Amino acid sequence: MTAAPNTKSGHRKEYSDIWVIGEQKEGTLNPITAELLGEGKKLAGHSGKRLIAVIAGGHIGKTAEELRYYGADGVLWIEDPLLASFSTEGYATAMARAIEAEKPEIVLMGATSLGRDIAPRIAAKLGTGITADCTKLEIDPEDGKLLMGKPALDGKLLITIICPKTRPQMATVRPGVFERAIRGEKPAGEIRKFLPELRGEEIRTKLTAMNPVGKRIVNLTGAKIIVAGGRGLKTAENFKLLEDLADALGGEVGASRAAVDAGWIDPSHQVGQTGTTVRPNVYFACGISGAVQHQAGMHEAKYIVAINTDPHAPIFQICDYGIIGDLREVVPAVTEVVRKQKQ
């Protein structure tokens, strides 16, 4: 079933198509899937290649059907009963076998916890390279290679990496960077199945639980409203003010790296160059000075509201609305107004 990776100069004649590896949990697509398909469409348009949406799992026919509405030229469903529950070995092995058999030219995955877990393992199995955490992707107009851009030196530089000798060209993409593909009204393309024929002995771990009981999942990439706090909060207890406002608005709580490094909030809330990149409709920056590393993760919010006591804070240079004041007074006042309007 499998074949050795092709590293000879003639590989370009064998490899084709652009693959987007979708993510799903209990049948629900992760937003990163639509983001990858949106960017994949652009790359396909510039390269003349087909765009294939790929999903792995057992008993996820409805999820595979849902992918047909996002404009790909086809959907490949990697199906096996052993993929019903996630395992690193199972998913990495199954996808590597599908890639060896189908030979896509480009493979894109999200730089999510799942993508960071299995993408390097897939690349190692295939004997190819991978560029992690990309924020820019382009097709070289001269030779058709994938130009993979990613930040370096704390965001001060954007470096471009190429994979000239091996295929496929693989990249993980930071969530929240690219615009999502719009779900169409009619399905497109056909669903094909690939059977990786996994064996039980190939999977050494068994999933017993997805999340600790009572722990809430932070969904910054899908949030329409984010209320984020930084060093200006001064204590972990003051995050309760942001939680109240986020709850009233139906949003999520974010944080700067300074707040996370201080131990005031879990790293899953971090926004910025070394955290999550977000595109909410409204982003409240409370007590956040607005260093370039933080701006890199939130500057594409539709509206930015800054609350800070320092009138010279960099955040005021990019915000749409700025309030110079103590967040401990301003945030509760805003929360009260929101709650009254909802009554």
Structure description:
It is a single chain. This protein has eight helices and 17 strands. Helix 3 (88-102) crosses helix 4 (113-126). It is 27% helix and 25% strand. It is globular, with a radius of gyration of 22 Å. It is of the alpha/beta class and 343 residues long. The termini are far apart. It has two domains: 9-202, HUPs (Rossmann fold), CATH 3.40.50.620; 225-342, 3-Layer(aba) Sandwich (Rossmann fold), CATH 3.40.50.1220. The strands form four sheets. The protein has a seven-stranded parallel β-sheet with strand order 7-11-6-1-4-5-12, with helices on both faces. The protein has a five-stranded parallel β-sheet with strand order 14-13-15-16-17. The chain has a three-stranded antiparallel β-sheet with strand order 8-9-10. The protein has helices at residues 31-47, 61-67, 88-102, 113-126, 239-249, 257-261, 292-298, 327-342, and strands spanning 16-21, 24-25, 28-29, 51-57, 74-79, 104-110, 130-134, 136-139, 146-152, 157-161, 169-173, 190-194, 225-229, 252-255, 282-286, 303-308, 321-324. Residues 1-12 have low confidence and may be disordered.
